[in-house]
Amino acid sequence: MSQYGNGVMEHFTNPRNVGEIKDADGVGTVGNPVCGDIMRIYIKVEDERIKEIKFKTFGCAAAIASGSVLTEMVKGKAVDEALKVTREQIIGKLGGLPRQKRHCSILAQDALKKAIDDYHARKKGLIPIRFVFESTSLKGYVKPTSLAQKILRVLPVEAKIEKWGEEIYFPINLKADLQNPQTEVEKGDIAFWPDEGGCLCLFFGATPISKEGKIVAYSDVEVVGSFTIEPMLVRMLSDGDGVRVERE
Ligand code: FES
User: Fold this and answer.
1) In the structure, which protein residues have their CB atom closer than 6 angstroms to any atom of ligand 1?
2) Which of 74, 76, 103, 138 shows its CA 20 to 30 Å from the CA of 218?
3) Domain boundary among 102, 123, 144
4) Range of the domain at 197
5) What are the tens digits of pLDDT across the range 170-219?
6) How far apart are the CA of 101 and the centre of ligand 1, in A?
7) Predicted TM-score of the model (pTM)
8) Which residues have a Cβ under 8 Å from the Cβ of 98 and sit 6 or more positions away?
Protein backbone atom coordinates (compact mmCIF):
# COMPACT_ATOMS: atom_id res chain seq x y z
CA MET A 1 0.00 0.00 0.00
CA SER A 2 1.26 3.52 -0.80
CA GLN A 3 2.67 5.57 2.07
CA TYR A 4 0.94 8.60 0.53
CA GLY A 5 -2.63 9.85 0.85
CA ASN A 6 -4.99 10.68 -2.00
CA GLY A 7 -3.88 14.34 -2.20
CA VAL A 8 -0.26 13.43 -2.87
CA MET A 9 -1.17 10.64 -5.30
CA GLU A 10 -3.50 12.93 -7.23
CA HIS A 11 -0.79 15.61 -7.69
CA PHE A 12 1.91 13.01 -8.32
CA THR A 13 -0.03 11.26 -11.09
CA ASN A 14 -1.35 14.49 -12.59
CA PRO A 15 1.17 17.23 -11.68
CA ARG A 16 0.22 20.80 -12.57
CA ASN A 17 2.56 23.44 -14.01
CA VAL A 18 5.33 21.04 -15.04
CA GLY A 19 7.83 22.39 -17.55
CA GLU A 20 10.02 25.40 -18.07
CA ILE A 21 9.56 29.03 -19.07
CA LYS A 22 12.09 30.02 -21.71
CA ASP A 23 12.06 33.77 -21.01
CA ALA A 24 11.50 33.51 -17.25
CA ASP A 25 11.89 36.60 -15.04
CA GLY A 26 13.25 34.43 -12.23
CA VAL A 27 14.70 30.92 -11.94
CA GLY A 28 15.49 29.12 -8.70
CA THR A 29 17.24 25.77 -8.35
CA VAL A 30 17.84 23.83 -5.15
CA GLY A 31 19.18 20.41 -4.33
CA ASN A 32 18.81 18.36 -1.20
CA PRO A 33 22.33 17.19 -0.31
CA VAL A 34 21.00 14.18 1.61
CA CYS A 35 18.71 12.53 -0.97
CA GLY A 36 20.27 14.24 -4.04
CA ASP A 37 16.91 15.42 -5.38
CA ILE A 38 16.77 18.67 -7.35
CA MET A 39 13.98 21.13 -8.10
CA ARG A 40 13.91 24.14 -10.40
CA ILE A 41 11.12 26.74 -10.49
CA TYR A 42 10.60 29.35 -13.23
CA ILE A 43 8.42 32.44 -12.76
CA LYS A 44 7.07 35.11 -15.06
CA VAL A 45 6.09 38.28 -13.20
CA GLU A 46 3.75 41.07 -14.25
CA ASP A 47 2.86 44.05 -12.04
CA GLU A 48 4.66 42.28 -9.16
CA ARG A 49 2.35 39.25 -9.50
CA ILE A 50 3.33 35.72 -10.49
CA LYS A 51 1.63 35.48 -13.84
CA GLU A 52 3.09 32.13 -14.83
CA ILE A 53 5.02 29.47 -12.94
CA LYS A 54 6.49 26.11 -13.94
CA PHE A 55 8.63 23.56 -12.18
CA LYS A 56 10.89 20.63 -13.05
CA THR A 57 12.27 18.13 -10.61
CA PHE A 58 14.42 15.05 -10.31
CA GLY A 59 12.65 14.15 -7.13
CA CYS A 60 10.48 11.69 -5.28
CA ALA A 61 6.65 11.52 -5.44
CA ALA A 62 6.38 13.91 -2.47
CA ALA A 63 8.67 16.46 -4.16
CA ILE A 64 6.66 16.29 -7.40
CA ALA A 65 3.37 16.67 -5.51
CA SER A 66 4.80 19.56 -3.43
CA GLY A 67 6.00 21.37 -6.58
CA SER A 68 2.61 20.85 -8.19
CA VAL A 69 0.58 22.10 -5.23
CA LEU A 70 2.89 25.04 -4.43
CA THR A 71 2.84 26.31 -8.01
CA GLU A 72 -0.98 26.13 -7.95
CA MET A 73 -1.08 27.99 -4.63
CA VAL A 74 1.11 30.93 -5.72
CA LYS A 75 0.02 31.41 -9.33
CA GLY A 76 -1.60 34.87 -9.52
CA LYS A 77 -0.32 35.90 -6.08
CA ALA A 78 1.77 39.00 -5.42
CA VAL A 79 5.47 38.10 -5.25
CA ASP A 80 5.72 39.11 -1.56
CA GLU A 81 2.62 37.08 -0.68
CA ALA A 82 4.01 34.01 -2.45
CA LEU A 83 7.01 34.13 -0.12
CA LYS A 84 4.71 33.76 2.87
CA VAL A 85 3.42 30.31 1.89
CA THR A 86 4.64 27.93 4.58
CA ARG A 87 5.69 24.34 4.49
CA GLU A 88 2.71 23.50 6.73
CA GLN A 89 0.33 25.03 4.19
CA ILE A 90 1.88 22.98 1.38
CA ILE A 91 1.61 19.80 3.43
CA GLY A 92 -1.94 20.72 4.46
CA LYS A 93 -3.01 21.14 0.82
CA LEU A 94 -1.57 17.72 0.07
CA GLY A 95 -3.58 16.20 2.90
CA GLY A 96 -0.42 15.40 4.86
CA LEU A 97 2.98 13.84 4.20
CA PRO A 98 4.65 10.96 6.06
CA ARG A 99 7.11 12.29 8.67
CA GLN A 100 10.17 11.09 6.73
CA LYS A 101 8.91 12.89 3.60
CA ARG A 102 8.10 16.26 5.14
CA HIS A 103 11.49 17.67 4.08
CA CYS A 104 10.47 17.16 0.43
CA SER A 105 8.03 20.08 0.70
CA ILE A 106 10.99 22.35 1.61
CA LEU A 107 12.58 21.68 -1.76
CA ALA A 108 9.65 23.36 -3.53
CA GLN A 109 9.48 26.22 -1.02
CA ASP A 110 13.23 26.92 -1.28
CA ALA A 111 13.20 26.76 -5.09
CA LEU A 112 10.39 29.35 -5.14
CA LYS A 113 12.31 31.61 -2.76
CA LYS A 114 15.40 31.39 -4.98
CA ALA A 115 13.32 32.14 -8.09
CA ILE A 116 11.94 35.26 -6.40
CA ASP A 117 15.44 36.32 -5.23
CA ASP A 118 16.59 35.82 -8.82
CA TYR A 119 13.71 37.98 -10.07
CA HIS A 120 14.76 40.80 -7.69
CA ALA A 121 18.43 40.52 -8.74
CA ARG A 122 17.55 40.68 -12.45
CA LYS A 123 15.35 43.70 -11.78
CA LYS A 124 18.44 45.47 -10.40
CA GLY A 125 20.18 44.78 -13.72
CA LEU A 126 22.32 41.88 -12.47
CA ILE A 127 22.83 39.08 -15.01
CA PRO A 128 22.69 35.48 -13.76
CA ILE A 129 25.41 33.02 -14.75
CA ARG A 130 26.10 29.46 -13.67
CA PHE A 131 29.35 27.60 -12.99
CA VAL A 132 28.75 23.91 -13.60
CA PHE A 133 31.22 21.45 -12.07
CA GLU A 134 31.12 17.69 -12.38
CA SER A 135 28.95 17.05 -9.35
CA THR A 136 27.45 20.41 -8.52
CA SER A 137 26.87 23.93 -9.76
CA LEU A 138 27.11 27.46 -8.43
CA LYS A 139 25.02 30.45 -9.29
CA GLY A 140 26.48 33.91 -9.66
CA TYR A 141 25.53 37.34 -10.96
CA VAL A 142 27.57 39.78 -12.98
CA LYS A 143 27.07 43.52 -12.97
CA PRO A 144 26.17 45.18 -16.28
CA THR A 145 29.64 46.72 -16.82
CA SER A 146 31.43 46.81 -20.17
CA LEU A 147 33.96 44.21 -18.98
CA ALA A 148 31.17 41.91 -17.81
CA GLN A 149 29.46 42.27 -21.19
CA LYS A 150 32.68 41.16 -22.89
CA ILE A 151 32.79 38.12 -20.61
CA LEU A 152 29.15 37.28 -21.32
CA ARG A 153 29.89 37.37 -25.05
CA VAL A 154 32.46 34.55 -24.78
CA LEU A 155 30.06 32.26 -22.87
CA PRO A 156 29.53 29.37 -22.73
CA VAL A 157 33.10 28.48 -21.87
CA GLU A 158 34.58 25.17 -20.78
CA ALA A 159 37.90 25.05 -18.95
CA LYS A 160 40.03 23.25 -16.39
CA ILE A 161 40.37 24.92 -13.03
CA GLU A 162 43.49 25.74 -11.03
CA LYS A 163 43.34 26.28 -7.29
CA TRP A 164 45.37 28.87 -5.44
CA GLY A 165 44.53 28.72 -1.76
CA GLU A 166 40.79 29.19 -1.61
CA GLU A 167 40.66 30.84 -5.01
CA ILE A 168 39.90 28.96 -8.19
CA TYR A 169 40.69 30.38 -11.60
CA PHE A 170 40.45 29.20 -15.18
CA PRO A 171 41.10 30.63 -18.66
CA ILE A 172 38.27 32.08 -20.72
CA ASN A 173 40.51 33.33 -23.55
CA LEU A 174 39.49 36.95 -23.40
CA LYS A 175 41.78 39.92 -23.94
CA ALA A 176 40.40 42.94 -22.10
CA ASP A 177 41.73 45.90 -20.17
CA LEU A 178 40.75 46.53 -16.57
CA GLN A 179 38.78 49.71 -15.86
CA ASN A 180 38.88 49.30 -12.08
CA PRO A 181 41.97 47.30 -11.13
CA GLN A 182 42.29 46.05 -7.56
CA THR A 183 44.14 43.35 -5.67
CA GLU A 184 42.00 43.24 -2.53
CA VAL A 185 38.76 41.34 -3.01
CA GLU A 186 35.91 39.89 -0.94
CA LYS A 187 34.77 36.35 -0.29
CA GLY A 188 32.24 35.45 -3.02
CA ASP A 189 33.69 37.83 -5.63
CA ILE A 190 33.90 36.86 -9.29
CA ALA A 191 36.81 38.70 -10.91
CA PHE A 192 38.54 38.94 -14.28
CA TRP A 193 42.31 38.49 -14.28
CA PRO A 194 43.94 39.63 -17.54
CA ASP A 195 47.00 37.34 -17.18
CA GLU A 196 47.46 33.84 -18.64
CA GLY A 197 45.21 34.63 -21.62
CA GLY A 198 42.43 36.15 -19.52
CA CYS A 199 40.94 34.20 -16.61
CA LEU A 200 37.90 34.22 -14.38
CA CYS A 201 38.64 33.92 -10.66
CA LEU A 202 36.24 32.82 -7.92
CA PHE A 203 37.29 33.80 -4.40
CA PHE A 204 35.99 31.36 -1.78
CA GLY A 205 38.41 32.64 0.87
CA ALA A 206 42.07 33.39 1.52
CA THR A 207 44.75 33.09 -1.14
CA PRO A 208 48.35 32.17 -0.18
CA ILE A 209 49.28 35.89 -0.02
CA SER A 210 46.23 37.02 1.98
CA LYS A 211 46.97 38.63 5.30
CA GLU A 212 45.19 40.24 8.24
CA GLY A 213 41.86 38.78 7.17
CA LYS A 214 42.06 40.46 3.76
CA ILE A 215 41.76 38.39 0.59
CA VAL A 216 44.49 39.38 -1.83
CA ALA A 217 44.69 38.43 -5.52
CA TYR A 218 48.02 37.51 -7.17
CA SER A 219 47.97 40.74 -9.21
CA ASP A 220 45.40 43.23 -10.48
CA VAL A 221 41.93 41.90 -11.15
CA GLU A 222 38.56 43.54 -11.72
CA VAL A 223 35.56 42.36 -9.75
CA VAL A 224 32.68 41.77 -12.15
CA GLY A 225 30.13 40.07 -9.91
CA SER A 226 29.55 37.69 -7.04
CA PHE A 227 28.43 34.14 -6.36
CA THR A 228 26.72 32.35 -3.52
CA ILE A 229 29.41 30.78 -1.38
CA GLU A 230 29.22 27.02 -0.87
CA PRO A 231 31.92 26.68 1.82
CA MET A 232 32.67 23.00 1.24
CA LEU A 233 32.81 23.21 -2.54
CA VAL A 234 36.31 24.63 -2.85
CA ARG A 235 37.63 21.72 -0.78
CA MET A 236 35.90 19.22 -3.05
CA LEU A 237 37.49 20.70 -6.18
CA SER A 238 40.95 19.79 -7.43
CA ASP A 239 43.36 21.19 -10.01
CA GLY A 240 42.31 20.00 -13.45
CA ASP A 241 38.60 19.59 -12.65
CA GLY A 242 36.33 20.78 -15.42
CA VAL A 243 34.03 23.79 -15.25
CA ARG A 244 31.48 25.11 -17.71
CA VAL A 245 30.33 28.71 -17.39
CA GLU A 246 27.03 29.60 -18.98
CA ARG A 247 24.31 32.23 -18.86
CA GLU A 248 21.28 31.02 -16.98
FE1 FES B 1 14.39 13.85 -1.72
FE2 FES B 1 11.83 13.65 -1.37
S3 FES B 1 13.32 12.18 -0.86
S4 FES B 1 12.93 15.35 -2.07
Assistant:
1) 32, 35, 37, 59-60, 62-63, 101, 104, 107
2) 138
3) 123
4) 127-247
5) 999 999 999 999 999 999 999 999 999 999 999 999 999 998 889 999 99
6) 7
7) 0.82
8) 3, 4, 62
